[in-house]
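Please check both lines for our workbook:

___
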Amino acid sequence: MDAPRFLQPRLIRPISAEGACSAIPLYPPLSEARRGPRNAIESNARTYSRRLPVTLESGRGVWVFDTEGRAYIDCLAGAGALALGHNHPIVTEAILAALNSGVPLQTLDLATPLRDHFIDELFQALPSRFASGAKVHFCGPSGADAIEAAIKLAACATGRRSLLCFRGAYHGMTSGALTVTGDNAARASSRGMLPDVHFLPFPADYRCPFGLGGDAGWQANVRYIEMLLDDPNGGVTAPAALILEVVQGEGGVNPAPSEWLRAIRDITSRRGILLIVDEVQTGLGRTGHMFACENAGIDPDVMVLSKAIGGGLPLAAIVYRQSLDLWKPGAHAGTFRGNQLGFAAGAAAIRHIRAGKLHLHARAMGDRLLVALENIAARTPLIGNIRGRGLMAGAEIVEPDGERQGSQPPPPSPALARRIQLSCLRRGLIVELGGRGGSVIRFLPPLIVTADEIDQIAARFGAAIEAVESQKDAST
């Protein structure tokens, strides 16, 4: 289906901020207290604004500018939602064209040309084998609501209730999504979570749950899961689904080995367990493939999508095998499933990412960033591990003099990671924390980031590390 005339996109080059300084700045320290009366009004549940006390006024490409005229390279980018960066013309033109057309802004699940066009663009971007036999259901506007829908669908299609999930996982903040999320602090605030949910170890080289790492680590992981599922006294009833992230994002940028993912797909297929892949943060080119599961060549039974698919606007959906479509009308509903501006922005973003092969660009820029981060890590004991896939990278911060337990790496250091994050902010670089206790510095720049901007990210991060290590920057 051709795009409506007012949405016909034009392919343009990636953008960056005009006049943005390539030298490393050193801004005065910032604190949350500077927001004054706003702190008395806004919720204690805020997170980003506590760690990043800036007041943003504008943004363009990978850059944002605060009310005091400071420029920052944005490696948070709406937690990955801004795949094309801030105010990309392709997206803004699509939104303005939709507004000028007089389209109803909210239409529940009624058909519109924008909705139909978005579906066409999305299915062209999906792995072809998966898309050929799939259906789509639009959810409420958040990824968490799409997780809720996936869990409901799995229960309806299988008649089972048991769920398998992974330590370190993050799937959202609603009750069902929190049930399969590993963050104990976040779970502590919730009541009435789902019963019969079982957490499995997630493979890792650096902090392998079996103390092995490498091939031996993921192979031991597979054997453990198979033994647990086949043990009549293992305490796990036949699961409806297993849910995973191909790269754990909030959990500390932990990429799953492709061999392990293929083994998990085999385990679930042979036992009639649905495989739900959460692509909320990894979808649409972030990891160097259009979708992260393509790296391992696997097809899920259910794919959960949000963030980038809306072009930066709220939009969420699940795509699943047609044979699973057994639920009744109204089984998962919501007022804001028909976000027409989200459809317009999302279709334009998907089309632009595909036309420009930005997933391949993300792979190349991600490789460049990882090499630069490895070079920094080689010069400091503060960084224990560098890992990532595509433009989803992480640096685990450790106690340089921490006591090791046997062959285990040094203890993680959330306090040092926090100081480094503030030191980055003073140097015009916005990064987020993740992992156990927030000990991993996370990099999620937009897919349009240039090689020069990657080099600037690395230079600013390296300068921040040096300042913290030498304690020259007392404010951090």
